[in-house]
UniProtKB/TrEMBL annotation:
PANTHER family: ABC TRANSPORTER PERMEASE YTRF, MEMBRANE COMPONENT OF TRANSPORTER-RELATED. The keyword Membrane applies. This is ABC-type lipoprotein release transport system permease subunit. It is a multi-pass membrane protein. It comes from Kribbella caucasensis. Signal peptide: none annotated. One of its GO terms (cellular component) is plasma membrane.
Amino acid sequence: MIRFALQGILGRKLRTALTAIGVVLGVALVSGTYVLTDSISSAFDSIFTENYKNTDAAITGKSAIDLSQDEAAGGVAPPFDQSLLAKVQALPEAGVAEGGVFGEAQLIGKDGKTIVFGGAPNLAFSVTPDRPEFNTLALVSGAWPAPGEVVIDTQTAEKKGFQAGETIGVQARGPIQRMRISGLVEFGQVSSIGGATLAGFDLPTAQRLMDKEGKLDQILVAKKDGVSEQQLIDAIQKVLPEGTQVRTAEDQATADAEGTSGFLDFFRTFLLVFAGIALFVGSFVIANSLSITIAQRTREFATLRTLGASRRQVLSSVVLEALVTGLLASVVGLFLGLGIATGLFRVFDAAGLTLPNNGLVFSTRTVIVALIVGVLVTLLASLRPAWRATRVPPIAAVREGATLAPTRFHRFRPVGAALLAIAGVALVVVGLFVDGLSTTTVLSSLGVGVLLIFIGIALFSSRLVRPLAAFSNPVARWSVLILTVLAWPFFSLPYWLLRRGVWGPGSSGRRTAGFVLGAVLNPVLLLIVLIMAVRRRAGSWQPEWPADFPGVLPDRPATEIGGQNSKRDPHRTASTAAALMIGLALVTLVATLGAGIIKPFEDAVDRIFSGDYAITAQNNFSPLPPAVAQAAAAAPGVTSVSSVRGGQAQAFGETIFITAVDSQAAGVLSFDWQAGSQDVLGQLRADGAVVDETYAKDHNLQLGSSLPLQTAGGKTLPLKVAGIFKPPAGGSPFGNVTISTTSFDATNPQPLNVYSFASMQGGVTAANTAALEQALATFPNAKAQTREQFKDAQSDGIRGLLNVLYVLLALSVVVSLFGIVNTLVLTVFERTRELGMLRAIGLTRRQVKRMIRHESVITALIGAVIGILLGLGLALLLAARLDEVSFAVPTGQLIIFAAVSVVVGIFAAIWPARRASRLNPLEALQYE
């Protein structure tokens, strides 16, 4: 039976390849995910290792509380006094010690704009030429910076046209400064650090730019010969002041990488979810393809049973075919993952998420996981078709058109499917609405619930095929016509002209004119038509007139037959449509949630932001130094400027995000007060605090309640609740606790503004905008935006993320497209004699193509209708649970999704329809 199974695969290469497509693409995304994240992790490891080369101990600032790595949230340890460096250098165990500072500094291009590549950071360092062993930057050309000079990275210099000796603008915590570029550098041995820009200064210059005079962020120490690392660490511990810590170089690199490791773990899980979706969709394609193939091989299996094969041997034969198919598909997908990883780097780069890269990493773990996942998915998908194959009775070998009788449990299928879907909905409801569950339990409940919903709906949808097919039949007919008419100037007209020019009738002058005009209208089609002409001349192919030349009404007999074909086997149609249903359900869910997030956010801005202008960084999300708001306040016509600082602190044993506002806040910000009034903002004292409603409820806080807040510097602020507000559904820029700017700055030596808002006499006018822009001219990284511009800019980040999700979900739609192709191809095999009969009684090749295409479009529309409705249902459940999300139907996008499903159906039918139209009627009538 092993030999029989292998021969069966070789005898059906096309069917096997089409069946394996879903596994290939799913495994490719699994492999690509691991290659991508392993490559990023390797690059970050190289970066952190390079930071501490030739270093035995690293001294850094120490926060009194646990901080996240988000600089916008104040997740940076405070600097320490520079006097510590001399004490460390005087230690007998220390060989060499050198201090430095680091932070962010924007480089300004020749056009006066901030140089930013994607969403990558703008890194700044101090460099010490006298201690090259500690330098993370490698000098490529020029010289190390003298006071008032800068070195920049070669990538920035190449892309923006800078050379050593030229002048460049630099903006850190103060206004822009012009500096001479003394040299060009690269970051150690790392081939790419993403889109980050690098700027290096001598220590005094770096301290001045970053407002850290007399301060250091770290001290790197190398031990003397004969001294162990532990001896060095012990010696340094004795001279460390409060607020500092010492680690070995390896431990410090690990600590630096903690934030990155957490991001990569999330990122890997995020991408693997989409790989799982593609494999899940692929499993439907595999199961459907094998079911059709087994139905077509009924007489073959019956003959085997007649010759003595047992049910177990038939089962083993089908399972072995699936095993070999899964293994081959997994191997192809494994190596295709390398291309997927490269493509994902480019996708995230285009979305503004430029990632570091030090070469693709193809680990053994990737190979093992990808192969196991691909083979298991294929085997699991093959179990039901394989079990059906064992039920073929020997007598079927002598029957014409023998089919398998339904099992005794077949009548319970609709009830079982409905129960599965109901169980899935119940699990989703539990995950969303039951309080007190762990994160793992919630995610597991949601994941399993959605999975059961998809399976249940897919099984039950066979009952919906006939009514949906009746609805989709006229929709498919006219949608194809509309798309054909729309394609007239882009495809059909140039195609017609090119064909006339190559082999059409008429004079040579008309033919030449048609050829030239067709080539101008669509150069891509020119190559296609020329290839067709060469093949025709070689006698290998006879061209036909385009099947859907615009202006021709739908061929009703052909489309009616196609509509009937889609209803002939509801289970097969439903199973084929299920793959597209899953993809479109998820795409609809994402689109609906996106619309539900953006609208509440815009409403929240309108409710909170009562000023005229918002001042943000050029990339819309980076924090800005207070000097920017001070410059804006000096603009003519400004009546008030208020900024929202951001940081972290600890209260009630947990680290929270806190914000701070100044006395001008009441003029540009509005709160929905549950306790207190708007006057609180303008009169917030050093011991006053405003908390949000949820935080107050969780900790039983009321007006006058004590709220001890421990800051990153170790100081505890004895605060009292002066107001409680309710954040709008779309969120707010304020943390759980908001204090006065005076209190915040007293405990945070490097404060940053998350947002700044301004009000001006006369409101938004061209003159006011120009005045504000002029005031911000010395800060190129800052920009002034009106309320509408601010909402659009902030929403762009959400839309960018949605576009990434669409790209990842598109893979499942591609898998479903191949599923439709596979089903149609197998259907053509199955209906060979029927097609021959139709051709014999007068059905033309064009009508055969239309019949197959119409069936494909109806199948796609059934999947689209069910998928869109299911996606809206899931979005409604999420919107009911999440306060930040409202239920908003993206009507325009849903229309686009429906149109895309029609296009998917048309493309899926191209090859099967062509194959069906080329059948020889006489040979088809004799087909067994």
